[in-house]
Amino acid sequence: MADSSKATRPCGRPYSRPIVAAQRVATKLHTFVYRVTGGRLGRRMVGAPVLLLTTTGRKTGKQRTSPLLYLEDGENLVIVASNGGAPRHPTWWLNLQADPEASLEIGNRKLRVRAEEASPEEKEWLWTRLVAMYGPYESYRHRTDRDIPVVILRPAEEKA
Known about the structure:
34% of the residues lie in helices and 29% in strands. It is an alpha+beta fold. The longest helix has 20 residues, at 17-36.
């Protein structure tokens, strides 16, 4: 008899607990250094620009910050929910799905944004540019069976 749970389990490279713990420490350290230096340190990684995205936890309601590579597209910023090709979406994307309002920091500049998933047409057009910026996105896409979301961060309207 075949294992039916295996058929429904997402495909991708799951990360071990020690790797996940190390990633959490690295994320906190990167965020700390980025903020303390106003982005002078930590604003670029592997040749690509980095922003700090702060979302509201969908379960806890706490503010969560993630350093992420981004691409400028006019007044919008584009990020990728690749999670390194892991079988599950990154937590920040799950948080944005629950509450698309977020804030970000680029250097000392702070901005309120509203997130939305790129349409298939937008994603196709943006994907080439994203891979040109950071080549491993393409290998992440092949590593997992989930559709990797491309997320557009649009400046939010200021509330009066």
